[in-house]
Amino acid sequence: MSRPKLLALLCLAVAVAPALAVEPRPLAIAIHGGAGVIDPAKMTPQRAASYRAGLAAALDAGYAILERGGSSLDAVTAAVRTMEDDPQFNAGRGAVLNHEGDAELDAAIMDGHGPRAGAVAGVRHVRNPVELARLVMEKSPHVLLVAEGAEEFALEQGVVLVPRDYFRTEARARELDEARQTQAGQLKAASPGATGTVGAVALDRAGHLAAATSTGGLTNKHRGRVGDSPIVGAGTYADDASCAVSGTGQGEFFIRQVVAYDICALVQYRHLTLAQAVREVIHEKLRRSGGEGGVIAVDRSGNIAMDFNSVGMFRGARDSRGQRDIAMYRDAQ
Ligand code: ASP
Question: What are the pocket residues of ligand 1 if the criterion is a CB atom closer than 6 Å to any ligand atom?
Answer without folding.
Answer: 34, 36, 90, 189-190, 196-197, 215, 217-218, 227-229, 235, 248-251
